[in-house]
Write a structure and sequence with these properties.
The complex is a heterodimer of chains A (about 325) and B (about 200).
Chain A (H helix, E strand, L loop, with lengths): L1 H23 L11 E5 L3 E3 L4 E8 L8 E7 L4 E7 L5 E6 L8 E9 L2 E10 L5 E6 L3 E3 L5 E9 L13 E5 L5 E5 L3 E2 L2 E7 L5 E9 L2 E10 L5 E7 L2 E3 L8 E9 L11 E6 L2 E6 L4 E7 L5 E9 L3 E10 L5 H4 L5
Parallel strand pairs in A: 2-8, 10-17, 19-25
Antiparallel strand pairs in A: 1-3, 3-6, 4-5, 4-7, 7-8, 9-11, 11-15, 12-13, 12-16, 14-15, 16-17, 18-20, 20-23, 21-22, 21-24, 24-25
Chain B lengths: L1 H37 L21 E3 L6 E2 L4 H24 L5 H4 L2 H17 L1 E7 L1 E8 L5 E17 L2 E18 L2 E11 L1
Parallel strand pairs in B: 1-4, 2-4
Antiparallel strand pairs in B: 3-5, 4-5, 5-6, 6-7
The chains are: A mainly beta (about 325), B alpha/beta (about 200).
Chain lengths: ~325, ~200
C-alpha cells in the first residue's frame, strides 16, 4: 500500500511537471476553431511567369504574428517565404518571373499556426527552344532492307520537355532523290519517335526535325549490302616462261558488289587463295588488290577469291613457253 | 631453463607490443584500399565503381515488364534501368542533404541536370532540406531497339521533404508522378528529361 502511494505520487508529479511545461510553451494565442486560410491564384501559368498568390484569413481573429509560411514545390525545387497578412487578414506573395520555371504540377502549401491550405498549380512548358534528333543506328543497309528508330527530344528554354500537343514535323531526303515528310504521331511530352527505314541506293540520308521555329538536322549513312557478286582479273593476263621481261609480281584484282550491283562498303575483307598460299586485302570503292610473286614454271594456275559468306570468283593464269598462246596475244601478256 | 623461458616471454611481449599498433593500422589500410575501389560511380573511372544495386520492392519496382512501344527489354536491361533510376533519386537525396552535387552528374544529364542544379541552388540560400522518396512504380512506355533510350512513367511514388529553416521544421508529404526520359551514355543510364506532377 505504501509503495502504491509512492508510485501514485510519482505519476502525479510527472503529470504536473508536464502540464507546467506545456503552459509555459508559447503557443500562438489564437483560436483556430472555425478559422480558414484561403489561397487564390490562377490555375496555370507558363514556366518562368510571374506568379501571384493571394491569401485570405477568415472565421477567427487574426493570430499574432499574422505570418503565413508558404511553400511551393515545383519539379525538383522548392520556393518558400513568409507572408505577413494585413489587418483585414489578406496578404499577397509575388513569385518573381524566372523563378517558377519547372513544368508540371506544382504543390502550394500555406500554413498559419495550425491552420493550413494546400493547392495545385499547373506550370506549362514554353515553346521548343532546343531540339535533339538522332537515330538508333548510324548506318543502315540500303534498298529498304533495314530499319531503325528516329528519336526526337524537345526542350523549352528552361529545360522542360515541351507539351505533347505540339506539331513535330519530320522531313527525310533519301540518296535516290526521293523525299518523305510526316508528323511524329508517337510522342509524349518532349519526346517523340518514328520508325526509320532505308530507301533507295547507298548514300547519305538527311533527316530534318521542325518544331515551331526550331530546326534540327541529322544524317545517317545508307550502306551497300553484303558481298554478293565478285569478279577477279589478274595482271598480266599471261606470262611467258624463261623470258627476261617476265614480271616478278602478279597482281590480283577483285571487284566486289552487293546483290544490287553497288560496290560494297570500303574496308570489306576479300580473301585470295591459290595452290600454295593465300592472302587478304580490303576493298576501296569496291575493288581489292593483292600483289603476289608471279609463278615461274609453265602451267595453268588457279586463283580463287572470296568475300563474305557467298561471293566467290575464280581466275586462271597461264604461264607458257614461247611462242605465246593465241589466247594471250590480245591480252597484253608478256 | 628459466633463462629460456624468460627469452620466450620477452619475444612474446615484444611481438604483442609490435602487433598492437601494426594490426589496426594494417586493417585500416586494407579497408581504405577496398573502399577506394568501391566508392562513387565516377564514369571516368576505369573501374566503373557503379554497382548494380537493386532497390527493394517498396522502394522501386516495375509494374510491367515490357514497353508499350518500341523494342522489348531483357530482364537484365530492366534491372539496370531500375537500379540506375533508383540511384538517381538517391543521389538527389544526398545532394539535398549535403549540398554536394558531385554525384549527380553520374545519374542526371542534359536538361534534367540543369533543372536539378537550379532546384538545389534555390534551396541552399534559404535553409536545409531533407528529401526522401519511396514506392516508385515504373512503367516502361518506350524502349529503343538499340537498348539505349527509355521513356518511363513513374506513378504514385511518395516524396517527403523536411525543411529546416530559421528555427522551424516542417514536413511535407506528397504523392507524385513523373515522366522520365533516360539514356544510356558510356555505360551509365542517366535521366535526361523529367516532368514531375505533385498530387
Amino acid at each position: 500500500m505504501r509503495h502504491f502511494r509512492r508510485i501514485l505520487g510519482f505519476i502525479i508529479l510527472i503529470l504536473l511537471t508536464v502540464l507546467l511545461f506545456r503552459s509555459g510553451t508559447r503557443q500562438p494565442a489564437i483560436s483556430q476553431l472555425g478559422a480558414t486560410l484561403t489561397m487564390k491564384y490562377v490555375p496555370s501559368i507558363n514556366a518562368g511567369d510571374l506568379f501571384t498568390l493571394h491569401l485570405f484569413w477568415s472565421g477567427a481573429p487574426l493570430p499574432t504574428p499574422p505570418e503565413v509560411q508558404v511553400t511551393v514545390f515545383q519539379g525538383i525545387g522548392v520556393i518558400y517565404s513568409t507572408i505577413r497578412l494585413d489587418a483585414s487578414g489578406e496578404g499577397q506573395w509575388d513569385i518573381a518571373p524566372q523563378k517558377l520555371v519547372q513544368a508540371g504540377t506544382a504543390a502550394v502549401f500555406a500554413r498559419l499556426g495550425s491552420t493550413s491550405a494546400r493547392g495545385s498549380l499547373t506550370v506549362l512548358p514554353l515553346e521548343a527552344d532546343h531540339l535533339n534528333l538522332y537515330s538508333t543506328a548510324n548506318t543502315l543497309i540500303a534498298y529498304g532492307n533495314a530499319q531503325a528508330m528516329g528519336i526526337a527530344l524537345m526542350g523549352d528554354r528552361w529545360g522542360n520537355p515541351v507539351s505533347s500537343g505540339i506539331t513535330t514535323a519530320i522531313a527525310i531526303n533519301y540518296p535516290d532523290g526521293t523525299k518523305d515528310a510526316f508528323e511524329i504521331d508517337r510522342h509524349y511530352a518532349g519526346f517523340g519517335w518514328f520508325p526509320l527505314a532505308s530507301r533507295g541506293v547507298p548514300g547519305r540520308t538527311s533527316l530534318t526535325l521542325n518544331v515551331g521555329d526550331q530546326t534540327q538536322t541529322a544524317e545517317i549513312q545508307q550502306v551497300p549490302g553484303t558481298p554478293s557478286r565478285i569478279s577477279m582479273t589478274h595482271f598480266p593476263s599471261c606470262i611467258l616462261e624463261n623470258t627476261t621481261i617476265r614480271p616478278d609480281l602478279l597482281e590480283l584484282r577483285a571487284l566486289v558488289a552487293d546483290a544490287n550491283g553497288y560496290p560494297v562498303s570500303d574496308g570489306t575483307v576479300v580473301d585470295f587463295f591459290w595452290k600454295d598460299g593465300k592472302g587478304r586485302a580490303l576493298t576501296l570503292n569496291g575493288q581489292a588488290e593483292l600483289r603476289i610473286p608471279a609463278p615461274k614454271r609453265s602451267g595453268v594456275y588457279t586463283y580463287v577469291v572470296r568475300s563474305g559468306p557467298i561471293a566467290q570468283g575464280t581466275t586462271l593464269l597461264r604461264v607458257a613457253t614461247s611462242p605465246l598462246p593465241a589466247e594471250c596475244l590480245n591480252s597484253g601478256a608478256q | 631453463m628459466k633463462t629460456l623461458l624468460r627469452i620466450k616471454f620477452g619475444i612474446f611481449v615484444l611481438v604483442i607490443a609490435i602487433a598492437i599498433p601494426v594490426v589496426p593500422i594494417s586493417f585500416g589500410l586494407v579497408t581504405q584500399f577496398i573502399t577506394y575501389f568501391q566508392q562513387g560511380a565516377n564514369p571516368a573511372s576505369i573501374f566503373r565503381g557503379n554497382k548494380l544495386v537493386l532497390p527493394a520492392t517498396d522502394q522501386a519496382r516495375w509494374l510491367t515488364s515490357q514497353p508499350l512501344e518500341g523494342a522489348s527489354a531483357s530482364p537484365a536491361q530492366l534491372e539496370e534501368l531500375l537500379a540506375a533510376y533508383w540511384q538517381a533519386w538517391q543521389a538527389l537525396s544526398r545532394a539535398y542533404q549535403t549540398n554536394d552535387k558531385s554525384d549527380l552528374l553520374t545519374y542526371w544529364a542534359g536538361d534534367a541536370i540543369g533543372q536539378v542544379e537550379r532546384g538545389l541552388d534555390g534551396i541552399q540560400k534559404g535553409g536545409q532540406f531533407h528529401f526522401t522518396d519511396r514506392n516508385h512504380q515504373l512503367q516502361l512506355l518506350f524502349f529503343s531497339d538499340d537498348g539505349t533510350s527509355a521513356l518511363v512513367q513513374d506513378s504514385n511514388f511518395q516524396v517527403q521533404y523536411t525543411l529546416s529553416s530559421a528555427g522551424r521544421r516542417v514536413e511535407f508529404s506528397m504523392d507524385t508522378s513523373a515522366l522520365v526520359f533516360i539514356t544510356l551514355d558510356n555505360g551509365f543510364w542517366r535521366i535526361r528529361q523529367i516532368t514531375i506532377h505533385y498530387h
